[in-house]
Amino acid sequence: MKDSAKLIVALDFAAEADALAMANQLDRSLCKVKVGKELFTAAGPSLVRRLVDTGFDVFLDLKFHDIPNTVAGACRAAAKLGVWMINVHAGGGRDMMLAAREAIEAGASRPLLIAVTVLTSLSDQALQEVGVAAGAAAQADRLARLTHASGLDGVVCSVHEVAGIKQACGAAFLTVTPGIRFAEDAKGDQVRVATPQFARAQGADYLVMGRPITQAPNPRQRLLEVERALQQEKDVRP
After folding, report:
1. How many CB atoms sit inside 10 A of residue 107's CB?
2. Model pTM above 0.85
3. Which of 23, 1, 4, 27 is nearest to 12 (CA)?
């Protein structure tokens, strides 16, 4: 897959057949794919292997968050599937992230390991309700620094936090940004969203898009539109 494939398409489906049908409509040279909790629970590791075997770079988005030993075991098992990237929750703490990193280092094929900072569905008010008074941007920055210190490859964060995280953790520290929408797209359950152009202008490394592509009348055409948008530098509004 060429390095310019910076788009990750979220295969947020409840059934294996639907996910595979969508994957067949995508161009592997233009995108990677993401398998999340719903699809993985419904279809299991065999679906992930099928996607890997067909040539897709797969981001296994299970957001592991548990005691260090349990997360280490889960990451070790995920790495054996041949996926391109896996993730944990940075809120699990330093020891958990160190255990996850050590678990995949020993394998024959090491996926990228990133950590979720603050879900893009959470507003500052929602964070206050769970005891995080500093707000989304400050919390994301704090957890990104901890992730970097723990030796992981990057973080999942909002587009609006990318610049600060890059400044704090370095340009090589990866940022994966959900909540990517065109201006005319519905926000769905996302709160902190942005356009593809704005995301790239902020320095985001990988952009995650789901429904704006998978629910489009012509997903392949929509994928090409996103690719063209990423080549433009004109409209960089959020």
Report:
1. 14
2. yes
3. 23
**Domains, the chain:** 7-231 (3.20.20.70)
Q: Find out whether 210 and 219 touch, Cβ atoms under 8 Å.
A: no
Structure tokens at 198: 């704005």
63 tagged catalytic: yes
Provide the b/e sequence for 111-134 (b: ≥16 CB within 10 Å). bbbbbbbbbbebebeebeeeebee
Question: Residue 226 and residue 206: Cα distance in Å, rounded?
Answer: 13
d(CA 147, CA 38): 26
Query: Which pLDDT belongs to residue 5?
Result: 64
* Cβ-Cβ contacts under 8 Å for 215 (sequence gap 6 or more): none
User: Choosing from 34, 63, 80, 187, which is the catalytic residue?
Assistant: 63
Tell me the two tokens of residue 25.
């409509």
- Token pair for 112: 């990228």
Per residue in 115-134, pLDDT (tens digit) is 999 988 888 999 999 999 98
pLDDT tens, residue by residue, 140-162:
999 999 999 999 999 999 999 99
Burial status of residue 98 (CB atoms within 10 A of its CB: 0-12, 13-18, 19 or more): middle
C-alpha torsion sign, points 48, 52, 55, 60: positive
Instruction: State the virtual CA torsion across 122, 125, 131, 133 in degrees, nearest 10.
Output: 110
Cα Rg, the chain, nearest whole Å: 17
